[in-house]
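Support request, priority: normal
Reporter: lab tech (M.K.)
Component: structure prediction queue

Hi team, I submitted a job for Methyltransferase from Hoeflea olei yesterday, and the status page still shows it as pending. I've pasted the exact input below so you can check whether something in the sequence is tripping the parser. The sequence length should be 279 residues. Please let me know if I need to resubmit or if it's stuck on your end.
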Amino acid sequence: MPGAATATGAAGDAEPRPGFTLDAFHYGGFYLVQPEASGHRAGMDAMLLAATVPPGARGALADLGAGAGAAVLAAANRLPDLAVTLVERSPVMADCARRTLALVQNAHLAPRLAVLEADVSLHGDSRRAAGLADQAFDFVIMNPPFNPGFDRRTPDPLKAEAHVMETGDLFERWLRTAGAILRPGGQVSVIARPESVAEILAGLGKRFGGAEITPVCPRPGDDAIRMLVTAIKGSRARLSLRDRLLLHDGPGTRFTALMGDLGNGRAAHLRRSPARTGK
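Reply from support: The job had stalled in the queue. We restarted it manually and it finished. Here are the results:
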């Protein structure tokens, strides 16, 4: 993906243990500790999700199911007035996130970053007791496990946890949490497979309006493999189906110029109906 490379060399006390890698994103704008051959490894999905946070955004952002923190670090690296919270229930991935925040390469971002080890699907008092307070955030982003349980399941339990839905109402649970922790007028962003659109729209329900759906296609003529959805808490605006984003415009693996900019923090995926930029 654009701007990502496996890095070697000194990383202070937080240098990854055997079985983990230290990877550079945004051409060295930030680094990520992540499992080498297990679990979920961050890529373009995380960068596209980060790109939905609008230019000039300030206030507080939460990434639900943050993994090692690629999406929120990408947002924080682009937006200097944003404080971010990585919410992750997997002890292994939460530890990767903490080690990521401790890297000397991320010292310029660390004061604005926090890790919360919690289950996104908690509800009511249980959610609040876990540290996810009501109306505490201006932005919420999420890349939920979007593979249905009947898909061929990976034998890697860490990867399965990141990729496979445990329940059929996953989007309802996650978007319920997003609606509770967002301030009125706050923006939620989701990246998922196109076949999840019905569940996502149902989860947005009356909590959110002004949903904008952007298909993400590999090349001209290809079906979408992802969709980006943004919506605003409390909005009554209508749903909008946006023009596609293309990953590639030729037969090779080279990304389009726009995708290169989105993947490296040089551009944002702007809503047609602008979101507020936070408090």
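Residues 5-13, 158-165 have pLDDT under 50 and may be disordered. The chain has one domain: 5-263. Let us know if anything else looks off. Ticket resolved.
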